[in-house]
C-alpha cells in the first residue's frame, strides 16, 4: 500500500510517496527560506504563492522518480492544519483535485500528528504508548501518545514555542532566519555557563512551559554588551535544555512510568537537546527515540506516514473537508492562559 503525502502548512513545500512497509519511495522538500529571509520571518502571502507555484512540478518529480502513477496510490494525504491558512489550502485543494480525478480516498492530516507519528516511520520497534516532547516552530508540548488519533496533552507553552525562542535569539544575535541551526552552531564555541539566564517555570508545580522571559533575558544580555554572542547562544541553549528536562521530569512524576521517551518537531534536530533527552530517558530507565534530522523539520514523508497509520484503521475524510488554521491534537485538553493549541 502506498500513500502520497503533501505538506504546505508553513514555509516548506513538500511531497512524498511512502509505503506501509515504511519505505520512503521518493520525496522532495523545497524550502522558502530565501524568499522569507529579507523579512526575518514567514510572510503568509509569499508562502501561499510559492506553494502554488512549486507543488505541481514537485508532484510530477516524485511520481516519476518512484515510477508510481496516481492510480497506484491507495490514499492522498495532505496537511489540513494547523498552519498558515493560505498555504494549507493550496496543498489541501491540490490533494482534493488529485483524489477526485483519480477516484482515490483523501485524508486530511493534522500537521502535528505528522510530527507526533514521525518517530514510528523511522523506528519500527517504537510501540504505543510513548511520552512525546513535540518541539517545533509553533508548538512546545508534552503528549502521551496512546495510539493513532489518541493524544493526551500533558503540557503546553503559555507563551512562545521553543523554535520561536531559537528564532528570536538568532534574530537578536543577527544570525538570520531560520535561527535554530545557526544558534546551535554558534553555541558550539560558547560557554553554556557564561551568561546567567532564567529557566522559566522550572520547578513549578504547574506542568507547562514558558519561553518569553528567556527571550527577553537574551535581549538584555546582548544589549548589556558584557557577553560574547557565542556565550549567549550556548547559555540560551543550556537554559532551553534545563527547561525541557525539568518539565519532562515533572510530567513523568505525574503519570508514572512509560516505556519510551520520544522527541519530534523541528527543534528535535538540535544535538545538544537530543543528547540531554537521551540521558534523561536513561536516568528514568526509558527507551529513547528521535527521528533522523531530516524527519524532524517539516517534510511530507511524515504526512504520508500518518496516512499509512490511519489507512490501517480505515480512517478517510470526505472531499469537502475543511482546512483548519487551528487544530489541537488533543481537543479535550484544558485551556491554558496565553496558549495557542
Ligand atoms: P509547527 O510544526 O509547530 O506548525 P513549523 O512547522 O514551522 O511549526 P518545524 O518545521 O517543525 O516548525 O520546526 C521549525 C523550527 O525548528 C524553527 O523554529 C527552527 O528554528 C527550529 N529548528 C530547526 N533546527 C533546529 C536546531 N538544530 N536547533 C534548534 N532549533 C531548530
Ligand atoms: Mg519551516
Ligand atoms: Fe512543523
UniProtKB/TrEMBL annotation:
GO molecular function: tRNA N(6)-L-threonylcarbamoyladenine synthase activity
Gene3D superfamilies, per the entry: 3.30.420.40
Function per UniProt: Required for the formation of a threonylcarbamoyl group on adenosine at position 37 (t(6)A37) in tRNAs that read codons beginning with adenine. Is involved in the transfer of the threonylcarbamoyl moiety of threonylcarbamoyl-AMP (TC-AMP) to the N6 group of A37, together with TsaE and TsaB. TsaD likely plays a direct catalytic role in this reaction.
Coiled coil (UniProt feature): none
Underlying gene: tsaD
Identification of the protein by name: tRNA N6-adenosine threonylcarbamoyltransferase
Cofactor note: Binds 1 Fe(2+) ion per subunit.
Catalytic activity, as annotated: L-threonylcarbamoyladenylate + adenosine(37) in tRNA = N(6)-L-threonylcarbamoyladenosine(37) in tRNA + AMP + H(+)
HAMAP family the UniProt entry points to: TsaD
Domain Gcp-like: 24-305
Record family assignment: Belongs to the KAE1 / TsaD family.
Top-tier EC class: transferase
Pfam families in the cross-refs: TsaD (PF00814)
Keywords: Acyltransferase, Cytoplasm, Iron, Metal-binding, Transferase, tRNA processing
Binding site residues for substrate: 134-138, 167, 180, 184, 270
Amino acid at each position: 500500500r502506498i500513500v502520497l503525502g503533501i505538506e504546505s502548512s508553513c514555509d516548506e513545500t513538500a511531497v512524498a510517496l511512502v509505503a506501509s512497509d515504511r519505505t520512503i519511495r521518493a520525496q522532495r522538500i523545497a524550502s522558502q527560506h530565501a524568499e522569507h529571509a529579507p523579512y526575518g520571518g514567514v510572510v503568509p502571502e509569499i508562502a501561499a504563492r510559492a506553494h502554488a507555484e512549486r507543488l505541481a512540478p514537485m508532484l510530477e518529480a516524485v511520481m516519476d522518480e518512484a515510477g508510481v502513477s496516481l492510480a497506484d496510490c491507495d490514499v492522498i494525504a495532505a496537511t489540513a492544519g494547523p498552519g498558515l491558512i493560505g498555504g494549507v489550502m493550496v496543498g489541501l485543494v491540490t490533494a482534493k483535485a488529485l483524489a477526485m480525478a483519480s477516484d482515490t480516498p483523501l485524508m486530511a492530516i493534522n500537521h502535528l500528528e505528522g510530527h507526533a507519528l514521525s518517530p514510528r516511520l523511522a523506528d519500527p520497534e517504537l510501540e504505543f504508548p510513548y511520552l512525546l516532547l513535540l518541539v517545533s516552530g509553533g508548538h512546545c508540548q508534552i503528549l502521551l501518545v496512546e495510539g493513532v488519533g489518541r493524544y493526551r496533552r500533558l503540557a503546553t507553552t503559555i507563551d512562545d514555542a521553543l523554535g520561536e525562542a531559537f528564532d528570536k535569539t538568532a534574530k537578536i544575535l543577527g544570525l538570520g532566519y531560520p535561527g535554530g541551526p545557526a544558534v546551535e552552531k554558534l553555541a558550539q564555541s560558547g560557554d553554556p555557563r557564561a551568561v546567567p539566564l532564567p529557566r522559566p517555570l522550572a520547578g513549578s508545580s504547574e506542568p507547562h512551559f514558558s519561553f518569553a522571559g528567556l527571550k527577553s533575558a537574551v535581549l538584555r544580555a546582548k544589549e548589556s554588551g558584557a557577553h560574547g554572542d557565542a556565550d549567549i547562544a550556548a547559555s540560551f541553549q543550556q537554559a532551553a535544555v534545563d527547561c525541557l528536562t525539568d518539565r519532562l521530569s515533572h510530567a513523568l512524576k505525574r503519570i508514572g512510568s512509560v516505556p519510551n521517551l520520544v522527541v519530534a518537531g523541528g527543534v528535535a534536530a538540535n544535538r545538544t537537546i537530543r543528547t540531554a533527552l537521551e540521558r534523561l530517558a536513561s536516568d528514568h530507565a526509558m527507551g529513547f527515540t528521535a527521528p533522523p534530522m531530516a524527519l524532524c523539520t517539516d517534510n511530507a514523508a511524515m504526512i504520508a506516514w500518518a496516512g499509512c497509520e490511519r489507512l490501517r484503521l480505515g480512517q478517510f475524510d470526505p472531499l469537502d473537508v475543511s482546512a483548519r488554521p487551528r487544530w489541537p491534537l488533543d481537543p479535550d485538553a484544558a485551556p491554558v492562559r496565553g496558549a495557542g493549541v
